[in-house]
């Protein structure tokens, strides 16, 4: 009988784990019944908004939710619900019965990143929102605790703003909460309201704030960073203002065009002329990087290699460590021209200046290995592995290190 019960629980909705320990998710109820149950038991409601393809969602369900300490915390306080927001052929009847509710909740609460966790009070009113999981039980409980504090509850803060709370301190706090909750619409509104209360936007605190909240050319900070990069960089660091501006231009002027017509290569000359007029200081560089990104996106490696080398030769001095690593790894995986691989090694080496990012080290080690520098590669991969904390993704690094020691390829030809 015990095995039969386990089997029935295992066959619940996709990734809807049930266990003796850990969070006990309810099944067989409608959303209205869940709210009635929460009200009757005077418990909050915890809704795990997930998709079947989301890696972090699977990690939370398989590793964090089953923990005894997590279950002890949640089961006493919450009615817990799993809400699958994608649709698959494997969906059972219970998952299907929640399709309409899922679409309604996702729309009402702007769920566009996964996992998103929604929290409702016993009256069924949304009070808090958390996006992204945690690496361990205590970390997860710490992220959830603000759901019970009106001073920290996300949706409670939004309601305070709607009721007229316009103090600078509150607006700053609420806008940061919106950003952390991946609520871009409210983040933009609140940050604009906060900046309107500031007499001097060029203070260090305000410039750091602006750098975090400037996401589009419509944001107030965009014009400020575009027109006065040197003044902004004095507080933000060399090249930071330019990187923010160029990233936005690239997204709005290049990526958006590519997305509209994925099968046709953009008219680079026309785009260059257009951006040269609109953004004379950055237009040419954005177009050159746009070519790199387009060939990377379309997996046209023959054109990608010369495009990325041309870009790096002309503009590489201002490239961020993250971009250096991205380009270097792409070359490692896809470019057969060893001249390009040799160039990528230098980019990867630069990405490590001033930091000990194990992912960047892994890139550097793999490129060294591909160039035949086995011993040096093994040393760097071992260093990267040792920097991964317990519970982290050590497996992939260990497998790469093992292949290097055995003389096996770490890339696919």
Report on the structure:
The protein has a four-stranded mixed sheet with strand order 2-1-3-4. It has 22 helices and four strands. α8 packs across α9, α16 packs antiparallel against α17 and α21 packs antiparallel against α22.
Distance between the termini: 52 Å
Put simply, the count of helices is: 22
- The sequence of SSEs as H and E is HHEHHEHHEEHHHHHHHHHHHHHHHH
β-strand percent reads: 5-15%
Structural class: alpha+beta
Q: What key attributes describe this structure?
A:
alpha+beta, 61% helix, disordered N terminus, 413 residues, 22 helices
Topology:
Layout: H1 2-10, H2 31-41, E1 44-50, H3 55-64, H4 68-75, E2 78-84, H5 93-97, H6 99-108, E3 116-120, E4 126-131, H7 137-144, H8 154-162, H9 168-180, H10 184-195, H11 204-213, H12 220-227, H13 229-236, H14 240-260, H15 268-278, H16 283-297, H17 301-315, H18 321-334, H19 338-351, H20 358-370, H21 374-387, H22 394-406
Parallel strand pairs: 1-2
Antiparallel strand pairs: 1-3, 3-4
Question: Could you give a short description of this structure?
Answer:
With 413 residues, this protein is an alpha+beta fold. The chain contains 22 helices and four strands.
């Amino acid at each position: 009988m015990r095995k039969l019960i386990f089997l029935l629980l295992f066959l619940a909705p996709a990734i809807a784990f049930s266990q003796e320990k850990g969070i006990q998710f309810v099944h067989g109820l409608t959303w209205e019944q869940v709210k009635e149950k929460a009200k009757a038991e005077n418990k909050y409601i915890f809704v795990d908004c997930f998709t079947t393809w989301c890696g972090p969602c699977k990690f939370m369900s398989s590793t964090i939710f089953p923990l005894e300490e997590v279950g002890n915390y949640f089961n006493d306080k919450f009615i817990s619900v799993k809400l699958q927001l994608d649709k698959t052929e494997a969906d059972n009847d219970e998952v299907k019965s929640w399709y309409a509710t899922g679409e309604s909740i996702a729309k009402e609460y702007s769920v566009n990143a996964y996992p998103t966790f929604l929290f409702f009070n016993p009256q069924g009113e949304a009070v808090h929102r958390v996006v992204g999981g945690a690496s361990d039980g205590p970390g997860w409980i710490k992220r959830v605790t603000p759901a019970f504090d009106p001073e920290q509850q996300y949706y409670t803060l939004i309601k305070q703003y709607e009721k007229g709370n316009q103090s600078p301190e509150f607006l700053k706090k609420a806008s940061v909460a919106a950003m952390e909750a991946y609520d871009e619409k409210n983040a933009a509104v609140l940050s604009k309201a906060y900046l309107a209360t500031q007499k001097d936007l060029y203070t260090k605190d305000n410039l750091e704030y602006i750098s975090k909240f400037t996401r589009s050319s419509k944001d107030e900070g965009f014009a400020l960073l575009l027109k006065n990069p040197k003044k902004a960089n004095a507080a933000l660091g060399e090249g930071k203002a330019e990187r923010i501006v160029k990233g936005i231009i690239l997204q709005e002027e290049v990526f958006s065009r590519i997305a509209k017509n994925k099968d046709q290569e953009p008219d680079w000359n026309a785009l260059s002329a257009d951006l040269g007029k609109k953004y004379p200081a950055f237009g040419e560089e954005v177009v050159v990087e746009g070519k790199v990104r387009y060939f990377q996106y379309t997996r046209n490696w023959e054109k990608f290699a010369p495009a990325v080398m041309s870009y790096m030769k002309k503009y590489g001095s201002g490239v961020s460590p993250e971009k250096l690593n991205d380009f270097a790894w792409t070359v490692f995986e896809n470019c057969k021209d060893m001249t390009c691989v040799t160039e990528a090694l230098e980019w990867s080496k630069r990405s490590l200046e001033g930091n000990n990012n194990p992912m960047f080290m892994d890139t550097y080690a793999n490129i060294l290995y591909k160039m035949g520098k086995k011993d040096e590669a093994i040393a760097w991969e071992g260093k990267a592995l040792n920097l991964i904390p317990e519970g982290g993704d050590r497996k992939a690094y260990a497998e790469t290190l093992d292949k290097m020691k055995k003389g096996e390829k770490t890339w696919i030809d």
